[in-house]
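User: Could you go from structure to sequence for me? I need the amino acid at each position, not a summary. C-alpha coordinates:
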Protein backbone atom coordinates (compact mmCIF):
# COMPACT_ATOMS: atom_id res chain seq x y z
CA UNK A 1 0.00 0.00 0.00
CA UNK A 2 2.65 2.56 0.98
CA UNK A 3 6.31 1.85 0.88
CA UNK A 4 7.91 2.22 4.30
CA UNK A 5 10.00 -0.03 6.50
CA UNK A 6 8.12 1.26 9.54
CA UNK A 7 5.84 -1.67 10.43
CA UNK A 8 3.67 0.24 12.92
CA UNK A 9 3.10 3.06 10.43
CA UNK A 10 2.30 0.64 7.63
CA UNK A 11 -0.14 -1.30 9.77
CA UNK A 12 -1.85 1.90 10.93
CA UNK A 13 -2.22 3.23 7.36
CA UNK A 14 -3.71 -0.11 6.29
CA UNK A 15 -6.10 -0.16 9.23
CA UNK A 16 -7.29 3.40 8.51
CA UNK A 17 -7.69 2.69 4.80
CA UNK A 18 -9.78 -0.41 5.57
CA UNK A 19 -12.01 1.68 7.82
CA UNK A 20 -12.31 4.88 5.76
CA UNK A 21 -12.38 3.14 2.34
CA UNK A 22 -10.75 5.80 0.14
CA UNK A 23 -10.47 5.28 -3.63
CA UNK A 24 -6.67 5.43 -3.34
CA UNK A 25 -3.82 6.24 -0.99
CA UNK A 26 -1.12 8.84 -1.68
CA UNK A 27 2.05 9.07 0.41
CA UNK A 28 3.15 12.72 0.34
CA UNK A 29 6.79 13.28 -0.61
CA UNK A 30 6.59 16.96 0.35
CA UNK A 31 8.08 18.14 -2.94
CA UNK A 32 7.39 21.46 -4.60
CA UNK A 33 5.91 19.60 -7.63
CA UNK A 34 3.48 17.77 -5.41
CA UNK A 35 2.43 21.04 -3.77
CA UNK A 36 1.96 22.85 -7.09
CA UNK A 37 0.09 20.01 -8.72
CA UNK A 38 -2.35 19.69 -5.82
CA UNK A 39 -3.12 23.39 -5.96
CA UNK A 40 -3.56 23.20 -9.72
CA UNK A 41 -5.96 20.26 -9.47
CA UNK A 42 -8.12 22.22 -7.03
CA UNK A 43 -8.10 25.37 -9.17
CA UNK A 44 -8.93 23.35 -12.32
CA UNK A 45 -11.85 21.75 -10.50
CA UNK A 46 -13.12 25.19 -9.47
CA UNK A 47 -12.49 24.48 -5.80
CA UNK A 48 -9.99 27.32 -5.32
CA UNK A 49 -9.00 30.59 -6.99
CA UNK A 50 -5.58 31.48 -8.31
CA UNK A 51 -4.98 35.15 -7.48
CA UNK A 52 -3.54 37.72 -9.88
CA UNK A 53 -0.06 36.32 -10.45
CA UNK A 54 1.45 39.75 -11.04
CA UNK A 55 0.10 41.18 -7.81
CA UNK A 56 0.28 38.01 -5.70
CA UNK A 57 2.54 35.44 -7.34
CA UNK A 58 2.01 31.91 -6.07
CA UNK A 59 -1.06 32.95 -4.09
CA UNK A 60 -4.43 31.18 -3.90
CA UNK A 61 -7.78 31.81 -2.27
CA UNK A 62 -10.10 29.22 -0.74
CA UNK A 63 -13.55 29.78 0.72
CA UNK A 64 -14.85 27.54 3.46
CA UNK A 65 -18.36 26.34 4.10
CA UNK A 66 -20.11 28.96 6.28
CA UNK A 67 -20.52 26.35 9.03
CA UNK A 68 -16.80 25.62 9.12
CA UNK A 69 -14.89 28.79 9.92
CA UNK A 70 -12.96 28.30 13.17
CA UNK A 71 -11.84 25.90 15.86
CA UNK A 72 -14.80 24.19 17.54
CA UNK A 73 -14.02 24.31 21.24
CA UNK A 74 -17.28 22.67 22.29
CA UNK A 75 -16.52 19.67 20.06
CA UNK A 76 -12.94 19.27 21.33
CA UNK A 77 -12.42 16.25 23.55
CA UNK A 78 -9.61 14.95 25.74
CA UNK A 79 -10.19 11.23 26.11
CA UNK A 80 -7.76 10.34 28.88
CA UNK A 81 -8.23 7.01 30.61
CA UNK A 82 -9.19 8.70 33.87
CA UNK A 83 -11.70 11.54 33.89
CA UNK A 84 -9.63 13.46 36.47
CA UNK A 85 -6.74 13.68 34.01
CA UNK A 86 -8.81 15.71 31.56
CA UNK A 87 -8.68 19.54 31.71
CA UNK A 88 -12.34 19.68 32.76
CA UNK A 89 -15.24 17.20 33.02
CA UNK A 90 -17.06 18.68 30.00
CA UNK A 91 -14.27 17.79 27.54
CA UNK A 92 -13.86 14.22 28.74
CA UNK A 93 -15.26 11.09 27.10
CA UNK A 94 -14.17 7.58 27.97
CA UNK A 95 -11.66 6.71 25.21
CA UNK A 96 -13.13 3.38 24.08
CA UNK A 97 -16.62 4.85 23.99
CA UNK A 98 -15.40 7.82 21.93
CA UNK A 99 -13.52 5.53 19.54
CA UNK A 100 -16.60 3.38 19.04
CA UNK A 101 -18.69 6.46 18.20
CA UNK A 102 -16.06 7.88 15.88
CA UNK A 103 -15.40 4.57 14.11
CA UNK A 104 -19.01 4.69 12.93
CA UNK A 105 -18.38 8.15 11.46
CA UNK A 106 -15.08 7.09 9.88
CA UNK A 107 -16.57 3.95 8.31
CA UNK A 108 -16.53 4.65 4.56
CA UNK A 109 -16.02 8.40 5.11
CA UNK A 110 -13.33 8.69 2.41
CA UNK A 111 -15.29 7.00 -0.40
CA UNK A 112 -14.66 8.77 -3.69
CA UNK A 113 -11.60 10.52 -2.25
CA UNK A 114 -7.83 10.15 -2.06
CA UNK A 115 -6.38 9.37 1.36
CA UNK A 116 -3.19 11.39 1.85
CA UNK A 117 -0.49 10.21 4.24
CA UNK A 118 1.55 13.20 5.42
CA UNK A 119 4.69 12.52 7.47
CA UNK A 120 5.62 15.77 9.26
CA UNK A 121 8.12 17.11 11.73
CA UNK A 122 7.25 19.67 14.38
CA UNK A 123 10.54 21.53 14.67
CA UNK A 124 13.60 21.29 12.44
CA UNK A 125 13.97 17.73 11.11
CA UNK A 126 16.27 15.79 13.41
CA UNK A 127 16.45 18.40 16.23
CA UNK A 128 16.51 16.81 19.69
CA UNK A 129 13.58 19.07 20.60
CA UNK A 130 11.52 18.13 17.50
CA UNK A 131 8.80 15.48 17.28
CA UNK A 132 7.37 13.58 14.35
CA UNK A 133 3.73 13.07 13.44
CA UNK A 134 1.92 11.43 10.56
CA UNK A 135 -1.37 12.96 9.48
CA UNK A 136 -3.78 10.93 7.40
CA UNK A 137 -6.28 13.25 5.70
CA UNK A 138 -8.72 13.19 2.81
CA UNK A 139 -8.31 16.93 2.25
CA UNK A 140 -5.84 18.23 -0.34
CA UNK A 141 -6.25 21.67 1.29
CA UNK A 142 -4.81 20.13 4.47
CA UNK A 143 -1.84 18.74 2.54
CA UNK A 144 -0.69 22.05 1.10
CA UNK A 145 -1.35 23.93 4.32
CA UNK A 146 0.63 21.30 6.27
CA UNK A 147 3.42 21.72 3.70
CA UNK A 148 3.60 25.40 4.71
CA UNK A 149 2.97 25.05 8.44
CA UNK A 150 5.28 22.09 9.13
CA UNK A 151 8.12 20.21 7.44
CA UNK A 152 6.60 17.32 5.51
CA UNK A 153 7.63 14.47 3.26
CA UNK A 154 10.28 11.89 2.47
CA UNK A 155 13.00 13.35 4.70
CA UNK A 156 10.71 13.03 7.71
CA UNK A 157 9.95 9.43 6.85
CA UNK A 158 13.68 8.72 6.59
CA UNK A 159 14.27 10.30 10.00
CA UNK A 160 11.47 8.17 11.43
CA UNK A 161 13.33 5.07 10.27
CA UNK A 162 11.79 1.66 10.86
CA UNK A 163 10.86 2.08 14.52
CA UNK A 164 10.79 5.81 15.34
CA UNK A 165 8.03 7.26 17.51
CA UNK A 166 5.30 9.28 15.88
CA UNK A 167 1.97 10.86 16.81
CA UNK A 168 -0.94 9.34 14.89
CA UNK A 169 -3.14 12.10 13.49
CA UNK A 170 -6.26 10.98 11.65
CA UNK A 171 -8.39 13.55 9.87
CA UNK A 172 -11.41 13.37 7.60
CA UNK A 173 -13.62 16.17 6.35
CA UNK A 174 -16.48 13.71 6.80
CA UNK A 175 -18.02 13.98 3.35
CA UNK A 176 -17.74 10.83 1.21
CA UNK A 177 -18.58 11.15 -2.48
CA UNK A 178 -21.03 8.81 -4.18
CA UNK A 179 -20.06 7.47 -7.61
CA UNK A 180 -20.13 10.40 -10.05
CA UNK A 181 -20.95 12.96 -7.34
CA UNK A 182 -19.26 16.32 -7.92
CA UNK A 183 -17.22 17.65 -5.01
CA UNK A 184 -18.14 20.92 -3.31
CA UNK A 185 -15.62 23.72 -2.77
CA UNK A 186 -15.39 22.99 0.94
CA UNK A 187 -16.57 19.52 1.92
CA UNK A 188 -17.25 19.04 5.63
CA UNK A 189 -19.89 17.69 8.00
CA UNK A 190 -22.03 20.82 8.35
CA UNK A 191 -23.79 19.84 11.56
CA UNK A 192 -21.75 20.79 14.60
CA UNK A 193 -22.80 17.60 16.39
CA UNK A 194 -21.07 15.52 13.72
CA UNK A 195 -17.70 17.19 14.27
CA UNK A 196 -15.13 15.74 16.66
CA UNK A 197 -11.67 16.99 17.55
CA UNK A 198 -10.51 14.17 19.79
CA UNK A 199 -7.28 13.57 21.66
CA UNK A 200 -6.11 10.33 23.22
CA UNK A 201 -3.21 11.59 25.34
CA UNK A 202 -1.96 8.23 26.64
CA UNK A 203 -1.77 6.89 23.09
CA UNK A 204 -0.40 10.17 21.70
CA UNK A 205 -3.17 10.05 19.13
CA UNK A 206 -5.55 12.53 17.50
CA UNK A 207 -8.82 11.77 15.70
CA UNK A 208 -10.49 14.66 13.92
CA UNK A 209 -13.72 14.38 11.95
CA UNK A 210 -16.06 16.72 10.10
CA UNK A 211 -14.12 19.99 9.81
CA UNK A 212 -11.54 21.18 7.30
CA UNK A 213 -10.64 24.47 8.98
CA UNK A 214 -7.47 25.59 10.76
CA UNK A 215 -6.62 23.88 13.99
CA UNK A 216 -9.45 21.37 13.52
CA UNK A 217 -7.71 19.96 10.47
CA UNK A 218 -4.05 21.04 10.49
CA UNK A 219 -3.39 18.62 13.30
CA UNK A 220 0.27 19.53 13.83
CA UNK A 221 -0.71 22.87 15.32
CA UNK A 222 -2.98 23.05 18.39
CA UNK A 223 -3.87 19.34 18.59
CA UNK A 224 -0.31 18.03 18.49
CA UNK A 225 2.06 20.91 19.26
CA UNK A 226 -0.05 22.03 22.24
CA UNK A 227 -2.49 19.41 23.56
CA UNK A 228 -0.55 16.19 22.92
CA UNK A 229 2.88 17.82 23.29
CA UNK A 230 1.83 19.26 26.66
CA UNK A 231 1.36 15.71 27.90
CA UNK A 232 4.70 14.63 26.43
CA UNK A 233 6.29 17.71 28.01
CA UNK A 234 4.83 16.89 31.42
CA UNK A 235 6.11 13.31 31.21
CA UNK A 236 9.54 14.33 29.88
CA UNK A 237 10.19 17.51 31.92
CA UNK A 238 9.81 20.32 29.39
CA UNK A 239 7.21 22.91 28.30
CA UNK A 240 4.89 23.02 25.26
CA UNK A 241 3.33 26.47 25.27
CA UNK A 242 1.04 28.81 23.36
CA UNK A 243 3.76 31.45 23.03
CA UNK A 244 5.48 33.64 20.49
CA UNK A 245 9.28 33.75 20.49
CA UNK A 246 11.08 36.97 19.60
CA UNK A 247 14.68 38.05 19.41
CA UNK A 248 15.60 41.48 20.69
CA UNK A 249 18.95 43.11 19.93
CA UNK A 250 19.97 46.24 21.85
CA UNK A 251 22.13 49.03 20.37
CA UNK A 252 25.30 47.43 21.76
CA UNK A 253 24.49 44.22 19.87
CA UNK A 254 23.48 42.22 22.90
CA UNK A 255 20.79 39.66 22.08
CA UNK A 256 17.85 38.55 24.24
CA UNK A 257 15.18 35.97 23.45
CA UNK A 258 11.71 36.48 24.87
CA UNK A 259 8.61 34.25 24.85
CA UNK A 260 5.08 35.58 25.25
CA UNK A 261 1.74 33.97 26.07
CA UNK A 262 -1.35 35.95 25.05
CA UNK A 263 -4.92 34.81 24.45
CA UNK A 264 -6.26 35.22 20.92
CA UNK A 265 -6.97 38.77 19.72
CA UNK A 266 -4.15 40.25 21.80
CA UNK A 267 -1.76 40.78 18.89
CA UNK A 268 0.67 37.90 19.34
CA UNK A 269 1.71 37.84 15.69
CA UNK A 270 2.02 41.64 15.70
CA UNK A 271 4.33 41.55 18.73
CA UNK A 272 6.44 38.76 17.25
CA UNK A 273 7.08 40.87 14.12
CA UNK A 274 7.16 44.28 15.74
CA UNK A 275 9.11 47.24 14.37
CA UNK A 276 10.65 48.95 17.41
CA UNK A 277 10.18 52.67 17.75
CA UNK A 278 13.80 53.30 18.80
CA UNK A 279 16.81 53.65 16.59
CA UNK A 280 19.42 50.98 17.24
CA UNK A 281 17.02 48.37 18.60
CA UNK A 282 15.96 45.41 16.54
CA UNK A 283 13.18 42.85 16.92
CA UNK A 284 13.30 39.64 14.92
CA UNK A 285 10.88 36.75 14.82
CA UNK A 286 11.54 33.18 15.91
CA UNK A 287 7.90 32.08 16.22
CA UNK A 288 4.44 33.64 16.47
CA UNK A 289 2.24 31.01 18.13
CA UNK A 290 3.90 28.01 19.79
CA UNK A 291 7.10 27.48 21.77
CA UNK A 292 8.62 24.21 22.93
CA UNK A 293 11.14 24.79 25.70
CA UNK A 294 13.66 22.31 27.04
CA UNK A 295 16.58 22.63 29.41
CA UNK A 296 19.98 22.88 27.78
CA UNK A 297 23.18 21.43 29.25
CA UNK A 298 23.84 24.85 30.85
CA UNK A 299 20.58 24.69 32.85
CA UNK A 300 18.81 27.39 30.82
CA UNK A 301 15.53 26.93 28.96
CA UNK A 302 15.93 26.77 25.18
CA UNK A 303 12.97 27.30 22.88
CA UNK A 304 12.20 26.17 19.37
CA UNK A 305 9.31 27.18 17.17
CA UNK A 306 7.84 23.79 16.21
CA UNK A 307 6.09 25.32 13.21
CA UNK A 308 7.41 26.33 9.80
CA UNK A 309 4.75 28.85 8.82
CA UNK A 310 2.24 31.38 10.06
CA UNK A 311 -1.50 30.77 10.13
CA UNK A 312 -2.40 34.38 10.82
CA UNK A 313 -5.70 36.22 11.17
CA UNK A 314 -6.09 38.47 8.11
CA UNK A 315 -8.66 41.05 9.29
CA UNK A 316 -6.91 43.87 11.11
CA UNK A 317 -3.54 43.05 9.57
CA UNK A 318 -2.24 46.19 7.86
CA UNK A 319 0.93 48.16 7.18
CA UNK A 320 0.19 49.93 10.47
CA UNK A 321 -0.56 46.95 12.72
CA UNK A 322 1.96 44.54 11.21
CA UNK A 323 4.03 45.70 8.23
CA UNK A 324 6.23 42.59 8.34
CA UNK A 325 3.23 40.27 8.08
CA UNK A 326 2.03 42.31 5.07
CA UNK A 327 5.47 41.92 3.44
CA UNK A 328 5.45 38.18 4.22
CA UNK A 329 2.20 37.55 2.36
CA UNK A 330 3.10 39.21 -0.92
CA UNK A 331 3.69 35.80 -2.54
CA UNK A 332 3.30 32.01 -2.08
CA UNK A 333 0.45 32.43 0.37
CA UNK A 334 -2.81 30.54 0.82
CA UNK A 335 -5.67 32.86 1.77
CA UNK A 336 -8.85 31.47 3.28
CA UNK A 337 -12.14 33.38 3.62
CA UNK A 338 -10.85 36.83 2.61
CA UNK A 339 -12.47 39.11 0.01
CA UNK A 340 -11.46 38.84 -3.67
CA UNK A 341 -11.10 42.14 -5.55
CA UNK A 342 -12.06 42.53 -9.20
CA UNK A 343 -8.37 42.63 -10.17
CA UNK A 344 -7.68 39.29 -8.50
CA UNK A 345 -6.16 40.56 -5.27
CA UNK A 346 -7.23 40.18 -1.64
CA UNK A 347 -8.99 42.63 0.68
CA UNK A 348 -10.20 42.49 4.25
CA UNK A 349 -11.55 44.77 6.95
CA UNK A 350 -8.69 46.64 8.59
CA UNK A 351 -6.23 46.08 5.74
CA UNK A 352 -5.65 49.83 5.74
CA UNK A 353 -6.89 50.64 2.22
CA UNK A 354 -10.28 51.99 1.20
CA UNK A 355 -12.87 49.30 0.49
CA UNK A 356 -13.11 48.67 -3.26
CA UNK A 357 -16.39 49.55 -4.96
CA UNK A 358 -17.00 45.88 -5.62
CA UNK A 359 -15.54 42.55 -4.63
CA UNK A 360 -16.50 38.93 -4.07
CA UNK A 361 -16.93 38.29 -0.37
CA UNK A 362 -15.74 35.26 1.63
CA UNK A 363 -18.96 33.43 0.83
CA UNK A 364 -18.51 33.94 -2.91
CA UNK A 365 -21.17 36.64 -3.25
CA UNK A 366 -21.04 40.10 -4.79
CA UNK A 367 -20.13 42.68 -2.18
CA UNK A 368 -20.10 46.48 -2.08
CA UNK A 369 -19.37 48.80 0.85
CA UNK A 370 -23.14 49.26 1.09
CA UNK A 371 -23.75 45.52 1.59
CA UNK A 372 -23.54 45.89 5.33
CA UNK A 373 -21.73 42.56 5.53
CA UNK A 374 -18.15 41.55 6.16
CA UNK A 375 -16.07 41.11 3.02
CA UNK A 376 -13.73 38.78 4.90
CA UNK A 377 -14.78 36.46 7.69
CA UNK A 378 -13.51 37.69 11.08
CA UNK A 379 -11.39 34.51 11.33
CA UNK A 380 -10.13 34.66 7.73
CA UNK A 381 -6.53 33.49 7.54
CA UNK A 382 -3.30 33.56 5.60
CA UNK A 383 -0.98 30.55 5.54
CA UNK A 384 2.57 31.57 4.68
CA UNK A 385 6.06 30.07 5.03
CA UNK A 386 7.86 31.66 7.98
CA UNK A 387 10.96 31.99 5.80
CA UNK A 388 9.13 34.71 3.84
CA UNK A 389 8.94 36.99 6.86
CA UNK A 390 11.59 39.68 6.28
CA UNK A 391 12.50 39.83 9.98
CA UNK A 392 12.95 36.13 10.75
CA UNK A 393 15.92 35.74 13.06
CA UNK A 394 18.73 33.73 11.44
CA UNK A 395 18.55 31.13 14.20
CA UNK A 396 14.81 30.41 13.87
CA UNK A 397 15.60 26.91 12.61
CA UNK A 398 18.53 26.26 14.94
CA UNK A 399 17.97 22.69 16.18
CA UNK A 400 19.39 23.66 19.57
CA UNK A 401 16.75 26.37 20.07
CA UNK A 402 17.36 29.81 21.60
CA UNK A 403 17.98 30.54 25.32
CA UNK A 404 15.01 32.35 26.85
CA UNK A 405 15.62 35.34 29.14
CA UNK A 406 12.05 36.47 29.76
CA UNK A 407 8.50 35.20 29.47
CA UNK A 408 5.64 37.64 28.99
CA UNK A 409 2.11 36.77 30.03
CA UNK A 410 -0.87 39.02 29.52
CA UNK A 411 -4.38 39.60 28.37
CA UNK A 412 -6.78 42.34 27.42
CA UNK A 413 -7.67 44.22 30.60
CA UNK A 414 -9.27 47.66 30.71
CA UNK A 415 -8.42 48.20 34.36
CA UNK A 416 -6.47 46.97 37.39
CA UNK A 417 -3.55 45.30 35.55
CA UNK A 418 -0.66 47.72 34.96
CA UNK A 419 1.28 48.10 31.72
CA UNK A 420 4.04 45.83 33.00
CA UNK A 421 4.78 44.03 36.26
CA UNK A 422 7.85 41.95 37.03
CA UNK A 423 7.26 38.80 39.05
CA UNK A 424 9.07 38.50 42.39
CA UNK A 425 10.28 34.96 41.67
CA UNK A 426 9.36 31.88 39.59
CA UNK A 427 6.37 30.79 41.69
CA UNK A 428 5.00 34.33 41.68
CA UNK A 429 5.47 34.35 37.90
CA UNK A 430 3.50 31.11 37.58
CA UNK A 431 0.83 32.72 39.75
CA UNK A 432 0.66 35.68 37.34
CA UNK A 433 0.40 33.22 34.44
CA UNK A 434 -2.46 31.47 36.20
CA UNK A 435 -4.51 34.66 36.64
CA UNK A 436 -4.04 36.21 33.21
CA UNK A 437 -7.02 36.62 30.94
CA UNK A 438 -9.25 39.04 29.10
CA UNK A 439 -12.47 40.84 29.81
CA UNK A 440 -15.45 39.32 28.06
CA UNK A 441 -16.65 41.91 25.56
CA UNK A 442 -19.44 39.97 23.93
CA UNK A 443 -21.59 37.37 25.57
CA UNK A 444 -24.94 35.77 25.11
CA UNK A 445 -25.52 36.33 28.81
CA UNK A 446 -25.00 40.06 29.27
CA UNK A 447 -24.12 39.52 32.93
CA UNK A 448 -20.83 38.09 31.74
CA UNK A 449 -19.75 41.25 29.93
CA UNK A 450 -16.89 42.85 31.83
CA UNK A 451 -16.15 39.62 33.71
CA UNK A 452 -12.65 38.32 33.34
CA UNK A 453 -12.23 35.07 31.45
CA UNK A 454 -9.09 33.72 33.06
CA UNK A 455 -6.94 31.95 30.54
CA UNK A 456 -3.85 30.52 32.28
CA UNK A 457 -0.83 30.98 30.00
CA UNK A 458 -3.35 31.38 27.12
CA UNK A 459 -3.81 27.61 27.27
CA UNK A 460 -7.47 27.39 28.21
CA UNK A 461 -8.54 25.95 24.82
CA UNK A 462 -5.33 23.89 24.55
CA UNK A 463 -4.84 21.99 27.78
CA UNK A 464 -4.08 18.36 27.09
CA UNK A 465 -4.48 17.33 30.72
CA UNK A 466 -5.78 18.57 34.07
CA UNK A 467 -5.24 22.34 34.33
CA UNK A 468 -4.20 22.17 38.00
CA UNK A 469 -1.61 19.51 37.16
CA UNK A 470 -0.47 21.76 34.33
CA UNK A 471 0.23 24.63 36.74
CA UNK A 472 1.94 22.15 39.08
CA UNK A 473 4.18 21.17 36.17
CA UNK A 474 5.13 24.83 35.67
CA UNK A 475 6.03 25.06 39.37
CA UNK A 476 8.12 21.90 39.12
CA UNK A 477 10.07 23.32 36.15
CA UNK A 478 11.23 26.10 38.48
CA UNK A 479 12.87 23.53 40.75
CA UNK A 480 14.85 21.84 37.98
CA UNK A 481 17.56 24.50 37.69
CA UNK A 482 19.19 27.42 39.54
CA UNK A 483 16.76 30.28 40.07
CA UNK A 484 19.11 32.70 38.30
CA UNK A 485 19.01 30.59 35.13
CA UNK A 486 15.23 30.68 34.84
CA UNK A 487 13.58 33.23 32.56
CA UNK A 488 11.97 36.13 34.44
CA UNK A 489 8.20 36.30 34.09
CA UNK A 490 6.49 39.62 33.27
CA UNK A 491 2.77 40.39 33.35
CA UNK A 492 1.96 42.92 30.61
CA UNK A 493 -1.24 44.68 29.56
CA UNK A 494 -1.36 46.88 26.45
CA UNK A 495 -5.11 47.44 26.78
CA UNK A 496 -5.70 49.73 29.80
CA UNK A 497 -8.48 52.27 29.20
CA UNK A 498 -9.06 55.70 30.72
CA UNK A 499 -12.27 57.25 32.04
CA UNK A 500 -13.23 58.17 28.45
CA UNK A 501 -13.03 54.49 27.44
CA UNK A 502 -9.93 55.19 25.29
CA UNK A 503 -6.78 53.05 25.24
CA UNK A 504 -4.09 54.83 27.27
CA UNK A 505 -1.13 53.04 25.74
CA UNK A 506 -0.57 53.30 21.95
CA UNK A 507 0.49 49.64 21.60
CA UNK A 508 1.88 48.07 18.39
CA UNK A 509 5.48 49.23 17.71
CA UNK A 510 5.50 51.25 20.92
CA UNK A 511 5.37 48.02 22.92
CA UNK A 512 9.10 47.90 22.22
CA UNK A 513 9.42 50.52 24.99
CA UNK A 514 8.21 47.92 27.48
CA UNK A 515 10.51 45.27 25.99
CA UNK A 516 13.37 47.71 26.44
CA UNK A 517 12.62 48.09 30.16
CA UNK A 518 12.38 44.33 30.53
CA UNK A 519 15.82 43.67 29.08
CA UNK A 520 17.21 46.56 31.12
CA UNK A 521 15.89 44.76 34.18
CA UNK A 522 17.51 41.53 33.05
CA UNK A 523 20.85 43.22 32.45
CA UNK A 524 20.58 45.01 35.82
CA UNK A 525 20.12 48.64 34.72
CA UNK A 526 16.31 48.94 34.67
CA UNK A 527 14.77 50.84 37.57
CA UNK A 528 11.85 49.36 39.50
CA UNK A 529 9.90 49.78 42.73
CA UNK A 530 8.62 46.88 44.74
CA UNK A 531 4.84 47.01 45.15
CA UNK A 532 2.36 44.55 46.68
CA UNK A 533 1.72 43.05 43.23
CA UNK A 534 5.30 42.84 41.95
CA UNK A 535 8.13 45.05 40.69
CA UNK A 536 6.87 47.97 38.62
CA UNK A 537 8.90 50.45 36.57
CA UNK A 538 9.68 53.69 38.40
CA UNK A 539 7.89 56.76 37.00
CA UNK A 540 10.75 57.53 34.59
CA UNK A 541 11.95 54.00 33.85
CA UNK A 542 9.97 53.44 30.65
CA UNK A 543 11.57 55.40 27.84
CA UNK A 544 8.85 57.63 26.37
CA UNK A 545 11.14 59.81 24.27
CA UNK A 546 9.44 60.85 21.07
CA UNK A 547 6.10 59.52 22.28
CA UNK A 548 3.14 61.80 22.84
CA UNK A 549 1.99 60.54 26.22
CA UNK A 550 1.47 62.60 29.38
CA UNK A 551 3.04 61.89 32.76
CA UNK A 552 -0.47 61.46 34.14
CA UNK A 553 -1.22 58.77 31.58
CA UNK A 554 2.02 56.97 32.44
CA UNK A 555 1.17 57.19 36.13
CA UNK A 556 -2.25 55.70 35.42
CA UNK A 557 -0.67 52.85 33.44
CA UNK A 558 1.66 52.05 36.31
CA UNK A 559 -0.53 52.61 39.34
CA UNK A 560 -1.44 49.90 41.81
CA UNK A 561 -5.05 50.47 42.77
CA UNK A 562 -5.42 48.53 45.99
CA UNK A 563 -9.22 48.59 45.97
CA UNK A 564 -9.30 47.20 42.44
CA UNK A 565 -6.72 44.56 43.34
CA UNK A 566 -8.77 43.39 46.32
CA UNK A 567 -11.70 42.89 43.94
CA UNK A 568 -9.28 41.04 41.67
CA UNK A 569 -8.22 38.80 44.56
CA UNK A 570 -11.86 37.89 45.24
CA UNK A 571 -12.37 37.08 41.57
CA UNK A 572 -9.22 34.92 41.47
CA UNK A 573 -10.42 33.05 44.57
CA UNK A 574 -13.65 32.29 42.74
CA UNK A 575 -11.77 31.15 39.66
CA UNK A 576 -9.38 28.99 41.70
CA UNK A 577 -12.38 26.99 42.95
CA UNK A 578 -12.74 25.58 39.43
CA UNK A 579 -9.47 23.66 39.94
CA UNK A 580 -10.89 21.60 42.79
CA UNK A 581 -8.27 19.63 44.66
CA UNK A 582 -5.83 19.88 41.75
CA UNK A 583 -5.05 23.52 42.59
CA UNK A 584 -1.36 23.65 43.55
CA UNK A 585 -0.81 24.63 47.18
CA UNK A 586 1.92 27.06 46.12
CA UNK A 587 -0.59 29.09 44.12
CA UNK A 588 -3.04 29.26 47.00
CA UNK A 589 -0.13 30.56 49.08
CA UNK A 590 0.71 33.14 46.41
CA UNK A 591 -2.86 34.39 46.48
CA UNK A 592 -2.88 34.62 50.29
CA UNK A 593 0.45 36.43 50.28
CA UNK A 594 -0.84 38.91 47.70
CA UNK A 595 -3.93 39.62 49.77
CA UNK A 596 -1.76 40.20 52.82
CA UNK A 597 0.55 42.56 50.99
CA UNK A 598 -2.44 44.56 49.77
CA UNK A 599 -4.05 45.03 53.17
O1 LIG B 1 -7.29 27.51 13.92
S1 LIG B 1 -6.07 27.55 14.74
O2 LIG B 1 -6.30 26.78 15.96
O3 LIG B 1 -4.96 27.00 14.03
C1 LIG B 1 -5.71 29.13 15.13
C2 LIG B 1 -6.42 29.59 16.35
O4 LIG B 1 -7.63 29.47 16.44
O5 LIG B 1 -5.74 30.12 17.25
MN1 LIG C 1 -2.73 30.59 18.78
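Assistant: Here is the amino acid at each position, in order:
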Amino acid sequence: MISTSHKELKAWVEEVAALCKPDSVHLCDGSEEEYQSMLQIMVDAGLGVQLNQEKRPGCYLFRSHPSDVARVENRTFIASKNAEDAPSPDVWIEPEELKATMRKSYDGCMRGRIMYVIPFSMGPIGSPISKIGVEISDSPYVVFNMKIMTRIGTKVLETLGSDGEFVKCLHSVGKPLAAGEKDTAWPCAPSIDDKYISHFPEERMIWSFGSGYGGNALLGKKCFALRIAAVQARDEGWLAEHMLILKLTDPSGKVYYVCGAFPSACGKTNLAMLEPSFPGWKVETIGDDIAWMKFGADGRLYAINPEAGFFGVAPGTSMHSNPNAMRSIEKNTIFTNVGLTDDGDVWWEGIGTEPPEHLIDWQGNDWTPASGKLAAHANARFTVPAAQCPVMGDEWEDPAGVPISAILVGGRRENTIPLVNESLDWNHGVFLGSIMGSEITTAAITDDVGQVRRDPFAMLPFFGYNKGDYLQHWLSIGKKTDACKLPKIYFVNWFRKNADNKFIWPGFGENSRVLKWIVERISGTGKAVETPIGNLPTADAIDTSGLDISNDAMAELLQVDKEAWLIEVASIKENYKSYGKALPKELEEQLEALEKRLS
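One structural detail worth keeping in mind: The pocket of manganese (II) ion (ligand 2) is lined by residues 242, 264, 289 (CB under 6 Å).
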